[in-house]
Amino acid sequence: MEKINNLNVKIFADGADKNKMLEMYSKPFIKGLTTNPTLMNKAGIKDYKAFCLDILSEIKDKPISFEVFSDDFDDMERQALEIASWGSNVYVKIPIMNTKRIPSYSSVKKLSEEKVKLNITALMTSNQVEEISEVLNPKVPSYISIFAGRIADTGVDPIPLMMQSLSILKALPLTELIWASPRELLNIFQADQIGCHVITVTQDILKKLDMIDYDLNEYSLDTVKMFFNDAVVAGYKL
User: Is the pTM of this model over 0.90?
Assistant: First the structure.
């Protein structure tokens, strides 16, 4: 854990299970939390507002992001204003576009001018970063979430885009770049290396923190033992 505590990149826990969220919130190295409608649906949450308010009754001093779920921009803005009213530590996640491919730039500009703290989400191109950076209020804290993991899923290295985005955001000192959708523990250290401000990390990856600096010779032996034991359990014979 010493290695994690020495990182400059801030780790945000990503999830929608209340108990796990509170467990992560209690850890000093977790600097914030995020969730989204997909995670909430998988967790079986039926009452969106009740869940959010319940979480906020216990998480008051670390930033937490909740996402709008309307596809209509007027209604999206209405939802954003309500969500923002729930707490001073709340950031409202606004998707970069709606399902009709219409960019959300106008709504982002309007909400940012109304001093709503935003987390612009699902970005994957430099053009999106440039366009969003031009409409954000430089006096209002915000996050820009680039889905680096999904970019990597297409066979493209996301690091050049992340570095380019950091350069673009120098003009917005209150706006932080999030490395979103990481795929492995290594991504935390990659994000830290390039100076990314935040990385959102799921429970599956957080469970691997104990593996940091684990002796690779021991890990090799563990793997061999796993193969052997599974063959014994299966009763394989030749």
Answer: yes
